[in-house]
Amino acid sequence: MAIIPIFLDISGGEFLIIFLAIFLVFGPKKVPEIARQVGKIMNELKKATSDLTREFQEGADEVRREVGSVKSNLLEETQKIKAQLTNVSSEASQQASQIASTINRESQIDISGRNQAAVFQQPIETPLPETPQENIQKAEEEEIKPIT
After folding, report:
1. Contact 90, 96 (CB under 8 A)
2. Which burial class, exposed, middle or buried, applies to 49 when counting CB atoms under 10 A from its CB (0-12, 13-18, 19+)?
3. Which of 6, 37, 81, 127 is surrounded by the fewest CB atoms within 10 Å?
4. Integer CA distances (angstroms), 56 to 7, 28, 148, in order
């Protein structure tokens, strides 16, 4: 770990001047005690920063694990959906093939010339009314009101 520089822009000469000022203000008896206190404070700051760094790393690792878990779950679900879609697609293709073959079989004409499909054998025999009077008469019989 890198030590965080507390004295950001203090050069050696400036540090010496500060040290002399402390020596003159507090005297030679208190300087070692002040140095010990500054050392303890620096040690506490280093511990606090390392604890914070460790906590941030643990939090980031936990987030990475959760993201990885979600990613793997999404991939699994995507694979399941893809497999289901493939199955549905193949089933639909099979059913479409069966319907097409059934339609082809029903519309084929056999060798004797007869049409196998009953739809094509009988002509439509629904007579259409020829005049508007017949339309009105038919509507009255069926109890339908004509549009006038």
Report:
1. no
2. middle
3. 127
4. 25, 43, 85
What's the rounded Cα separation, in Å, for the pair 127 and 61? 83
Cβ contact 50:1 at 8 Å: yes
Average pLDDT of each block of 10 consecutive residues along the chain (148 residues)? 54 81 84 87 92 94 94 93 89 87 70 48 55 70 60
Q: What's the DSSP call for residue 127? A: P
Encoded tokens for 116: 């196998």
Please, which residues bridge with residue 115 across strands?
A: 109
pLDDT at 51: 93
pLDDT per residue as tens digits for the range 49-70: 999 999 999 999 999 999 999 9
**CA-to-CA distance for 132 and 146, rounded, in angstroms?**
10
